[in-house]
Structure formats: structure tokens, C-alpha cells
Amino acid sequence: YAIVGKPVTTEAQLVRYYQSKAVFPDYYKNHDAEVKTLEDFVHVYYQEAVDENVRPEVAFAQMVIETGWLKYGGRVKIEQYNFAGLGATDGTSNSGSFASVRLGIRAHIQHLKAYADKNASESTLKHPLIDNRFKYLTKGSAEYVEWLGAQENPNGVGWATSAGYGKN
């Protein structure tokens, strides 16, 4: 399933999907100037993804996996606005923090674009670079969702080392 390209879902579908499984945390309503509701959150994901030609449904599904439906519970905490576990690599406790929901989502989308698009560079990004790990990635090394798991990636690299990560 290609990571870059036009969306195959709507914002409303992503909202319904999330609501069918979880409750949107009140934290964002109380701590972010722009995002007060699940609909706002999905809208920002959709905007940022479409701006970078990343399929929003892919990024949103990855956020669900990485945050446990925004419940967190691992190395990354809700107040870090880190929706993709950026910097929380195996064996470290240093995960990225961002100033707002939008900037955390932007960093996620930029990181995902770097994996999926061999032509990704700071100059091709629509918005200023937020992802401080962007420069370390081999651009286009995981064009498909299924290749996001390093064990299943023919290039031997990926977002995560856990078996079946992309399939999940």
C-alpha cells in the first residue's frame, strides 16, 4: 500500500474509525490553541498529509499504533505532541517533543514522507522542516506501508524493528 499519493478516505471516515475504538483525550482541548476536538485533530492530520502528498489514512493509522489510540503509556508522553514515537528508538529514552499538535503532526508527516519518497528533501517540503531526524533517513527506503517494518523491508531499514510493524 503506497504511502504517498491521494487519500482514499475522508476526514469523516477517520473520525468515525477513531470514535469506534477510543475516546479523544481532553488533554488537547486544554493544552493546544488550535485543536480542541477529534474533528480538529483529524483535520490537521489531513491538511498536513495532503500538503506533503502523504496519504492521511496511513499517517493516522500509524499514529494510532504509535500512541495506543492517544493513550500513550510508553516512552513518549502526551505532553510531547509526538504522535509517531520520533526519537524513541530501541534502547533510548530520548523521544522528540514539539510545541503544538500541528507541529507534532507536521514532524510525523515529514518523517513518513522521507521514508516513502526518494525525492524528499528539505527544499521539497511544503512547510518548514520540523523533523530533526529527517536528514538521517535514506529517502524512499520504505515506499509501502508493509515496508515500514525493518524486518520486512527489502532495503533492511524501516520505521520500527518489531516483526510485522507495517502489516499492523
Describe this structure in words.
The protein has 168 residues and is mainly α. The model has no long low-confidence stretch (mean pLDDT 94). The protein has 5 helices and no strands.
Biggest sheet overview: none
Strand content: under 5%
Structural class: mainly alpha
| Overall average residue pLDDT | 94
How many individual β-strands? Answer: 0
Helix share of residues?
Answer: 25-40%
Contiguous low-pLDDT stretches (5 residues minimum) are none
Order of helices and strands: HHHHH
Q: Shape from CA axes?
A: globular
Work out the radius of gyration: 15 Å
Gap from first CA to last CA: 12 Å
Quick structural overview:
This protein is mainly α and 168 residues long.
Describe this protein with a few key phrases.
globular, 168 residues, single chain, mainly alpha, 5 helices
Topology diagram in text:
Layout: H1 11-19, H2 27-31, H3 38-51, H4 56-67, H5 101-116
